[in-house]
Structures are given as structure tokens and as C-alpha cells.
Amino acid sequence: MSGQQQRVAVVTGGAAGIGWSIARRLQADGMHVIAADLVEGETPGSGVEWRALDVTDRDAVAALFDAIVSDRGRLDVLVNNAGIQRHGPLVDLTAEEWGKVVDVNLNGVFHCLQAAGRHMLAAGAGAIVNITSIAGERGSPGRAPYSTTKAGVIGLTRAAGVEWAARGVRVNAVGPGYIETGVYHEGVAAGRLDPAAILDRIPADRLGRPEEIAQMVSFLVSDQAAYVNGQVLFVDGGFLA
Ligand code: NAD
């Protein structure tokens, strides 16, 4: 498939980690996928197009979505996946550290959702998935800005989901539990995460795989999910059940 018939998907932070799995899955679903990321990551030679983007740069976000629609003639899917963490006790957190996490995890989602949403609303069709976390539903020590922003993403998902539902644009969220990624292994190596204690809290008795997040995203952006609006689906092995 080529040209204007092929669906176009943008995955922020799509060059590495969970975002890369999502990008590959949507590519396998037949879409032209653009990984909008700070780094090229896994994209060279993959067929996934990389475009440099810092999601905190509101003007750059607007320019990128305008350029994509101008180049490809359409925009079908946005996955707001880019996210960062800062670890440390809440009492020691600086305003700069707080602001950085809010800027990427919440403001970045707002900028991209709005810029993509404008094009999708004009076309009367589109699907957006925001990546939140179990940390948006449960507090976890040392992750206050992360939990706060991920809870904010849930609120934004519900607000946009109902505001745009009658106009053909679906907005939903996926909340991963503990997924076996570089971020998880770094947390274990740094002593922030205790693998035994984590497994103890997961009914499925294992970590999740990035592909399992990608599968849920694939479903939510497909026509099979045509009547799913403003929902948050946790993929967490039963952690929050
Ligand atoms: P990761 O750090 O492996 O990858 C994140 C990607 O986002 C990187 O490629 C990075 O370059 C990009 N990125 C960071 N800041 C950016 C910015 N300002 N603009 C554009 N791109 C930026 O992270 P991950 O573990 O794959 O997590 C992906 C998403 O899943 C995040 O939203 C994270 O909060 C969420 N999540 C992850 C887990 C987990 O277990 N790993 C669990 C729950 C939720």
C-alpha cells in the first residue's frame, strides 16, 4: 500500500522501549509509522520513519503534525508514549525536577493531542492512545511527579474522549504495569526496584512484555474498538484488579 491509502500513525518516544514495540506493531498492521523522538534509536533501516521531536516544544509539535499531514495527506493514529521518570523523596524534589516531568509527561501529551486532534477533527476521523501507568492509579514512594502526571493523563484522556467522541475522534489510554524494559532493569540495578517484592504483587506472577502493550494499542486504534471512547485499559497482569 502506498500514498494516501496507507494509514499514518505517529508514536511519540517511538524509537526505543515500549514505543518501539508499538511502532513495529502498527507497522505490521499496515500503517506508515513515524517515530517522533529525541533520538533515532532503533529506527534506522527499519522502515519506521524517524522525525526529531521534543514533545515539550509546542511550536515544533504543531509544525511536525502540519508537515506530516502536508506530506502524507492524512493522519490516522497518535500514540502519546514519550515519558520520563525522576526518582527521589518528595520533600527533596526541586521545582525544576517537578517541572521537567510535568513538561514531558503531561504538557507534551497535551501539545501532541491538540495538534493531532485538530487535523483529525477536521477529517472527522482518528484514534489517539495515551500511555499512562499503574502509577497513575496507585502511589509509589519516590515517584510523586510521575504518579501525578500519569493521573493527569488519565483525566485528559477522559476529557478529550468525551469531547471528541461525536466528532469521529476516539481518545483512550493504556496503562502498563511492570514491563520488562531497559527502564525496569535500570531500576533493579540502582536498587530502586525489588524484583521479588514486585512479583509478589502481580497476580499473573510475571512481568509484562512490551509487545503486550503494543497489542492493546493496536486493538484500540483499530475499527474493532470503534465504540470505545475515553477509557483507560490497564495491561498489568492483574496488579490493579
Ligand atoms: P524509555 O525511556 O525506554 O523510552 C522513552 C522514549 O521516549 C525514548 O526513546 C526517549 O528518547 C523518548 N523521549 C523522552 N523524552 C522525550 C521528549 N521530550 N520528546 C520526545 N521523545 C522523548 O521508556 P519506556 O519504558 O519505553 O516507557 C514508555 C512509556 O511507557 C512512558 O510513557 C512510560 O511512562 C510508560 N510506562 C512504562 C512502564 C515500564 O515498565 N517501562 C510502565 C508503565 C508505563
From TrEMBL:
Its EC number is 1.1.1.100. PROSITE patterns: ADH_SHORT. It comes from the Bacteria. Signal peptide: none annotated. Keywords: Oxidoreductase. Residues 7-201 form the Ketoreductase domain. Coiled coil: none annotated. One of its GO terms (biological process) is fatty acid elongation. One of its GO terms (molecular function) is 3-oxoacyl-[acyl-carrier-protein] reductase (NADPH) activity. Pfam families: adh_short_C2 (PF13561). InterPro entries: KR_dom, NAD(P)-bd_dom_sf, Sc_DH/Rdtase_CS, SDR_fam. Belongs to the short-chain dehydrogenases/reductases (SDR) family. This is 3-oxoacyl-[acyl-carrier protein] reductase. The lineage of its organism: Bacteria, Bacillati, Actinomycetota, Thermoleophilia, Solirubrobacterales.
